[in-house]
Give the backbone structure.
Amino acid sequence: MDKKRLVMVRRDKLPMYLRILNPIIFLIVALAFSGIFIIMQGFNPVTVYIKMFGEAFGSASGLSASIVMGIPLMMCGLGVSIAFKMNLNNIGAEGQFAMGAMASTGFILFGPKLPGALQIPMMIIIATATGAAWALIAAIAKAYWNVNETIITLMMNYVALLLLNYLCYGPWKDGSGLNLPYTKKIPATAYMSNLGGTGISIGFIIAIVAAVIMYWFFNYTTAGFQISVIKNSMNAARYAGINVKKNIMTVLLLSGALSGMTGAIQVCGSIHRLQPTISNNAGFTAIVIAYLSKFNPLVVILVSIFFGGLAKGSFTVQTQGVPAQIATMIQGSILIFILVGEIFIKYRFARVGQHESINKAE
């Protein structure tokens, strides 16, 4: 007798409604799971969620604040997504962000004086180049010696963040203030303009433009097609005559460049000085955002605003005594459950006999 066994087989077709409903369903499941821990803290999860999301998205000012908090997530998320598009893991967006912020702030505070119209463009250029240079070490090691880029980019975060702390607590510290680990403010001429008095800097427009360019690049250019070929099979790409080393270098440099640019946008757009917490884990949160967005640059913008809203809302519920870690836990739960949801949408359970092929079960 042929004994049946339970296996997971890949679905042949995915209905569009299932693609749309799946992340929504598992988002609700993630919130329900997080609600268990909110209850354990002695709070009503429904009340906490209403307060959190109402504060973040229930008013024009709340939405503006969510977008402001989402801008660095957008830029880092786009940078991380570029690397993931070719199965490269840039875990170093946090450090590249910090390096871009340090380089641009150092230039505007201690470099040559420039006309006001040139200050912001030059800060962005310097931050972008610095982020790319910081990613260059991992790019060279991966392209020429196949060294794991995950480890290199991860470890370089700590180098960058320690340097940031040294500068803010040491030689760049503003001694004329409250003795806090901040630099003095950049000149007002280097502040980015707000959009219609909303508090949203033009960094939001930069992020949208970058997302549109990325979408066009990966979907409508030969270089974008080559990256997708390399992602599927490096050996097939080499056989087709694609320069794999060049593409590895290009992708990681672009990834670092966007993350580095984030530093200048944050300094010019909202912080207006350098401080140890300027990146605020945006580079690490960007990894979650990239996965949830399935590396689609346009979706990265929307997911970043959602995560910015989570951060904004968490500040509000803290005043009610809810722990600050709730927002982080919700972010992690959303990632885990939506990734699990992806497994269930792509595969299904089927019972097959011991000598029956899985293809037949499909």
Remarks:
- The chain has 14 helices and two strands.
- The chain has two domains: 1-41+323-362, 74-292.
